Amino acid sequence: MSRRNKIALFLILLLGVSIFGYSLRDIKLNILIRDFTTIHLGWLLVAILCMLLYFGLEGMVVKVFVDERIGQYSFKSALRIPLIEQLFNGITPFSSGGQPAQLIAMLQSGIDGGRASSILLMKFIVYQAMIVINFLIALLIGFNYMVSKMSYLSLFVVFGFVVHFGVIVGLFLVMFWPQFTKKLMRLVMIPVRWFTKKERVDEWVTKLDTKIDLFYAESVQLIGQWKLLLKVILVTFVQLMSYYLVPYFIMLSLGYTQANVVMITCLHVLIVMVISIFPIPGGSGGAEYAFTVLFSSYITNSSKLVLAMLLWRILTYYFGIFAGIGALAVKPDKINIRK
């Protein structure tokens, strides 16, 4: 990690501790300790296993893509990719650092930069598509409840969906209409030329043309391998479901056994969509607030509500950050490139 990233990590952890401290301001410590000691460890373990499954399945997706397109890739090296992604997503605004960090991690295994970029884009397309599909289902089920609780957050939810949907549309344009995408890209560059030197803009256009051509060639090959694509879609769906179910199992661990698994899962999907558009890394502050408000009708005990929020945030956010730090310390295996 660079010095800048270490500073960002320190600030994020400091912010997290501050938010946790603020959330606990009205909770008596002895009551919180009592609630913590009465947790059903079995259900809490299931929530932890869900997060481990989430990371493991994403590592499997990486391995499937690399094995099919390049050569034999160890699961240890493949698992390292999503963990490093979690770390850099967690410490950068809008999760912008995850993709470059994954690319560097794959380069360390001896994978060509062009192929690595293509594989990451393919993984990203499937992941984004499944997020949009899950969100549409959650929107139909839980949107009215969210509006009744926090009408102003509904605007963020809709905006988050538009952003994710726009990303998918852009990627599909590259996959199926590369020439149209190039023309569209040149139109976007027209106002950029007003503020930037012509030579620099021309260089950007040339690089983008090359990336679009490469991505198109790789996507055509992938679409032709429909069995591989279907396998990745199914694995990604299970991966996301394991993540979305974490709050439900946390609630079970706190004794709320009558919780509606469908509604709880849908609310978590909506919260994740809101978090994704906050500029602060991890949506810190907004994530905690959204969770406590939306789940207050299900967890009526204020101490257990805060405890549920803390457990949820630790498992779904900070766990990934620390796992990513550990992954950085692991030396990846070199890929066995198929001849």
TrEMBL record:
- Say yes or no: keyword Transmembrane present: yes
- What catalytic activity is recorded? L-lysyl-tRNA(Lys) + a 1,2-diacyl-sn-glycero-3-phospho-(1'-sn-glycerol) = a 1,2-diacyl-sn-glycero-3-phospho-1'-(3'-O-L-lysyl)-sn-glycerol + tRNA(Lys)
The signal peptide here is none
Q: What class of enzyme is it?
A: transferase
What Pfam family is a match, any one?
LPG_synthase_TM
What Gene Ontology molecular function terms does this protein carry? phosphatidylglycerol lysyltransferase activity
Single GO biological process annotation from the record: response to antibiotic
Membrane-crossing residue ranges in chain numbering: 41-66, 124-146, 152-177, 228-250, 256-277, 314-330
Enzyme Commission number(s) = 2.3.2.3
What topology does it adopt in the membrane? Multi-pass membrane protein
A single Gene Ontology CC term: plasma membrane
Location of this chain's protein in the cell: Cell membrane
Q: Tell me the InterPro entries matching this sequence.
A: L-PG_synthase/AglD (IPR022791)
- Which keywords does UniProt give here? Antibiotic resistance, Cell membrane, Lipid metabolism, Membrane, Transferase, Transmembrane, Transmembrane helix
Q: Provide the family line.
A: Belongs to the LPG synthase family.
Role noted for this protein: Catalyzes the transfer of a lysyl group from L-lysyl-tRNA(Lys) to membrane-bound phosphatidylglycerol (PG), which produces lysylphosphatidylglycerol (LPG), a major component of the bacterial membrane with a positive net charge. LPG synthesis contributes to bacterial virulence as it is involved in the resistance mechanism against cationic antimicrobial peptides (CAMP) produces by the host's immune system (defensins, cathelicidins) and by the competing microorganisms.
Protein name (record): Phosphatidylglycerol lysyltransferase
Q: Which organism is it from?
A: Secundilactobacillus folii
- Species lineage, top-down? Bacteria, Bacillati, Bacillota, Bacilli, Lactobacillales
Give the gene that encodes this protein. mprF
